[in-house]
Amino acid sequence: MPDTAARARRFPPSIKFLAWNEAAERFSYYGMASILVLHMVRNLGFAENQSIAAYQLFTAGVYLTPIAGAFLADRYWGRYRTILWLSLGYVAGHAVLALWESAAGLAVGLALIAVGAGGLKPCASAFAGDQIPPEDEGLVARLYDLYYWMINLGSTASTIVIPLLLDKVSPRVAFGVPGLAMAAALALFWAGRGRYVHVPPSHRAAPATAAVARAMPGADPAAAPAGRVVLRILAVFAPISIFWALFFQYGSSWTLQAERMVRPVLPVVGQLAAGNVQTLDAAFVLTLIPLFAIVVFPAVERRGVRVTPLRKMTVGMYVTVLSFVAAALVEAALARGPVHVAWQIPQYFFLAVGEVLVSVTALEFAYSQAPRHLKSVVMACWYLTIWAGTFLTAIVAWVNRFQGVPYFVFFAGLMVIAAVVFTGVAWWYPDQRATAVRAAA
């Protein structure tokens, strides 16, 4: 008989195609995003507030379209065909950005990418999970660890390379290379077509939609408790929307801030590009995740303090405030004269700590707390919090009520309010796992 333990330690052959597809797709997305605001300001004549608003509106679109992608995959096309067809539109979007150098081309290209990148989100990771046989369930955690690293591999490489292409070569090349990466991602995905496990679509009401209907008050008395659990989870999610209003500004307002700072000259590549600074976020996150898991959390537990998802998220909300306080201090220093870009390191550090404590932990929280038949609903709501936060930033930037230091102070103050609200919600929230343990006892 085959060695079951050995077999369980190996990924199916299809995973290598999907993992490299993920790395190439993330290279394309983050590479394009790293130069977006700079291109709008330098080459298309956008005002800084307009470029921030456009960037945040695009990001909001990326996190709104996952609902449509999940609906298409679950009800009509299946995950494989949804990924395949949306990837074609994704490649077309990059091509439009590279070849149609105007505000109209920007709008068309970003719309295609928002539909492609967002629509793929709920399908790609689920399709990878479909490849793991039920008897090898232990591989699932390793699979998503692999995915996280491939995502960061792609994003880190792109935020190093693509901003330099914008500065040293041309916008057409800088946008064209991410397009080629996305074409490579599509080719890798298609190359593995004969090895994939396919879960067919339902061809009836989407499970998530039906689950929401069952949880509506008055629809099914037996489902009411589950509906109340979802509403409590949404109460936790609501203030986290403000976290997202701050988070993605490392690609907009923070990059424009770096553009006005003194950047060092490096061997071979020359002056550090403003977009290169975004690499700090991924570098800090990759360092902090094992540091917190191996050192910080165990040390806190040894002091008799139980580390729970809600407590981690509460601390993360307050730490995120410090990122924009640091950004405001840098902006104040810039008003007095030239400042080295290294001054941005603290704000990236605090943002990365917030990301690890809030974003990563929230996924664990949502999955563990949601009723089994409503997990898809809860994850869809999680994407909507990201959309709401980035859309809020787009509105604030477009209205242009705050500039300079007041702009960063405004978001720091907004985050303080969100953190205080979250503290109250976390204190009120009845942890479903703790309740289950008490009931079992």
From TrEMBL:
Gene3D superfamilies: MFS general substrate transporter like domains. Pfam families: PTR2 (PF00854). It is a multi-pass membrane protein. InterPro entries: MFS_trans_sf, POT_fam. Its main location: membrane. The chain crosses the membrane at residues 52-71, 83-100, 107-127, 147-166, 173-192, 229-248, 260-277, 283-301, 313-335, 347-367, 379-399, 405-429. Keywords: Membrane, Transmembrane, Transmembrane helix. It is found in: Membrane. Belongs to the major facilitator superfamily. Proton-dependent oligopeptide transporter (POT/PTR) (TC 2.A.17) family. This is Oligopeptide transporter. It comes from Anaeromyxobacter oryzae.
